[in-house]
Design goal:
It contains 7 helices and 5 strands; from the N terminus they run αββαααβαββαα. It is α/β, with parallel strands linked by helices.
């Protein structure tokens, strides 16, 4: 009888912990967002954003794809083109960091504008802080950005944070992580991204 009572209490405790964890998750308002799936990322974007404009912002060229070891495919849909560009950028960042993650899966969420981005950032940080151009949330493995900041240098910086957080068993200090992400940003700027 005591064993059953103990098991029952354990189940209730675990269930309450799971429910409490899901209740504390930050709602980011992407319930009605459009989705593009790539090999490494699910990219969500606000429905009012223009997909072709986002592709122009990211601007990953066919030569970047070749240098990243990706095969250039013709006849992409807009969704396929964005997915290919994001995966190419991921491969470039892995190469710059010399940290290969072949089975990595993450999320990129492109907010409607910088106001929405800063609102989400404030909810994650539980304070109203300085404006941000983008950020990586370790808790839900997601890069958040705005359309005007959906550029290779900025997204590459945030992808670096995602890679670093999945590569090391024991995470380096925040300063070291930021230094590595800034190194990626520097290399992407130097290469003309």
């Amino acid at each position: 009888m005591t064993k059953k009572l103990f098991c029952g209490a354990a189940v209730i405790w675990i269930a309450s912990a799971v429910l409490a964890g899901s209740a504390s998750a930050v709602e980011d308002g992407f319930g009605n967002a459009r989705k593009v799936q790539s090999e490494h990322f699910a990219v969500y974007y606000a429905p009012e954003l223009d997909l072709s404009g986002l592709i122009q912002q990211l601007n990953i060229s066919p030569s970047d794809e070749l240098l990243a070891g990706k095969a250039i495919k013709k006849g992409y849909s807009l969704e396929g083109e964005l997915a290919g560009m994001v995966d190419t950028l991921f491969t470039q960042v892995c190469g710059i960091l010399d940290m290969q993650l072949y089975s990595f899966k993450g999320t990129i969420k492109i907010c409607r504008d910088s106001i929405e981005l800063n609102d989400i950032y404030s909810r994650f940080k539980k304070s109203s802080g300085k404006p941000t151009r983008s950020f990586y949330s370790y808790e839900n493995n997601t890069v958040y950005t705005s359309p005007e900041n959906f550029k290779p240098v900025i997204i590459g910086h945030e992808i670096a944070h995602a890679i670093i957080s999945h590569y090391f068993v024991v995470l380096p200090s925040e300063k070291i992580q930021e230094l590595l992400a800034q190194y990626v940003e520097f290399q992407l700027r130097k290469s003309g991204q």
